[in-house]
Amino acid sequence: MSTTRVAVYDRTIRASLERIWENVLDWEHLPWLHRESFGHVRLLDESSGGFRAELSLRGDPTPFVIDVAVDRANRVYHSRTIDGPGTGSDIVTTLAPVAEQATNVHVEFLLPSIKPSSVESVGRLYVGLYTLLWDQDEAMMIRRQTFVDGRLPRTACEAVVGGTPVRFSSVCPHLGGPLDGAPVEDGCVTCPWHGYRFDVRTGRRIDGDALALPAT
Q1: Residue 136: which pLDDT band, with cuts at 50, 70 and 90?
Q2: Per-residue pLDDT tens over the stretch 141-156
Q3: Which CATH class is domain 153-216?
Q4: What is the pTM of this model?
Q5: Fewer Cβ neighbours under 10 Å: the N or C end of the chain?
Q6: pLDDT in tens, 50-67
Q7: pLDDT tens-place string over residues 64-119
Q8: Does the fold of domain 153-216 match that of domain 4-148?
Q9: 81 CB contacts (<8 Å, ≥6 apart)?
Q10: Three-class HEC string of 111-164
Q11: What CATH number is given for 4-148 in this structure?
Q12: Which residues pair with 199 in a beta bridge?
């Protein structure tokens, strides 16, 4: 299927190549960190070389399926839509490290069956969307690097559950997400990065593995 390049997006992200690859394969964060953009995600398949998932956009419940394929050797990854609206589109991202904690990102948006008169307007929509997504991803990766390096302050949050005051860690034990400011509902706090829920009274993760909040 032939495609048309509707736009190109370039920027330098303040994160290492390692953090970016980690982020690319992190399908769980899409409807949480990017809640303004995505409605849901359902994993269909996953491997060290990528993943396939069903998604929807915020405000549009129509599902579509993307296939994310990583080529680490050439520092390229493809995000192809293989079913649903946009089938045949391919978003190609090329990565180029420029410093220890800086990586240049070059994105090409390739769409099928696009009218010449629509190329410019559609291209602007994609660039606007990816500007927001990379803004949010960059902030997450910067904090994540601080967490990995052991430089993230482990302060305590406070809440009142059933009339009893409780204290819990401000750092999610999963990838270091921020729990300070996250609402506590029914005695549980939800990480805004991946939606992991923890009982603030016990620290245990709800409906999950043995992951738990560290003691404050």
Answers
A1: very high
A2: 999 999 999 999 989 9
A3: mainly beta
A4: 0.94
A5: N
A6: 999 999 999 999 999 999
A7: 999 999 999 999 999 999 999 999 999 999 999 999 999 999 999 999 989 999 99
A8: no
A9: 64, 65, 66, 67, 87, 88, 89, 90
A10: ECCCCHHHHHHHHHHHHHHHHHHHHHHHHHHHHHHHHHCCCCCCCEEEEEECCE
A11: 3.30.530.20
A12: 188
CB 54 within 8 A of CB 65: yes
Burial class (CB in 10 A: 0-12, 13-18, 19+), 102: middle
Q: Where are the alpha helices (DSSP H) in the chain?
A: 17-24, 30-33, 119-148
Nearest to 194 by CA among 22, 30, 50, 46: 30
- CB-based contact 110:90 (threshold 8 Å): yes
For residue 162, CA distances in Å to 10, 73, 86, 192, 200 come to: 50, 54, 48, 23, 12
Name the residue among 11, 62, 64, 55 with its Cα closest to residue 30. Answer: 55
Name the residue ranges covered by the structural domains of the chain: 4-148, 153-216
